[in-house]
Write a structure and sequence with these properties.
alpha+beta; Helix Hairpins; SH3 type barrels; Alpha-Beta Plaits; five-stranded antiparallel β-sheet; three-stranded antiparallel β-sheet; 8 helices
Amino acid sequence: MFGVTDFNRAFHLLSDKLTRWVQQFILLLPNLLIALLILVITYFTAGLLRRLVNKFLGRVSASGSLNNLIETTTYVGVLVVGIFFTLEVLSLDKTVTSLLAGVGIIGLALGFAFQDIAANFISGIIIAVQRPFTVGDVIQTETYFGTIESINLRTLDLRQVTGELVRVPNRKVFESSVINFTVTTRRRVDVQCGVGYDADLEQVRATVLGCMADFPNLLTDRPVEVMFTAFADSSITFVLRFWIPYQRQVDYVGAKSEAIIRIKRAFDAAGIAIPFPIRTLDISPALLAQLGRLLPKA
């Protein structure tokens, strides 16, 4: 049975244990105060650096997503360094080592698990830094064509000319060829057409150049060209080339439509025909005789 002697012994053991804990706490109290001071200083330092980085990046970078990423990384990095210093002051060296090892293992595992997301994220950072295009530019990727509405760290929002919004992963944009139609503010319009073999080609050239004389928004520093390209099956083909100012896709489409209208009107006035596709059937006399026997006689 549990007697008085056993109770006294257990009480003394518990009292000794509590006394040692209190003594260790008193010895550790200066380190706790220093650790608390380090945490407070770290918190305010992280906030101050975040505000300074925000002001600096606002002057040199127009990418809100990239600026927010750098600010958050700076803030979290300072906090992590302060926490590690706090653990060192508290003599928790093994805890620091375990945390570093755990962070490394977790980072490696996440890298393999989310490598596509990481690739899009890194590509978004590179695009934000290099800025090969901006919001409002008209671009063409290997698959899509449209106007950029927003550039994020993971995707690029592209509004197609037919109205659909496409979110293209940044890795696809970064790794593929991209045509930026807005960067030069001008574009060449090519209009293909054909005339009959009996047409006077010199007259055709003069007629096409004449109908383009007062073309709206035509860039005069580049000549209007009419180039005959091939002897096709039913016509001699040519291409009309001219340059216009370009800001939106409607500028290009509208100029091409106006050129087609002018060419058709000018050809009608000059009596120049745009031939239909022609197919010639060669039927042998034996086949004609056979068909004559099969067809009913009137």
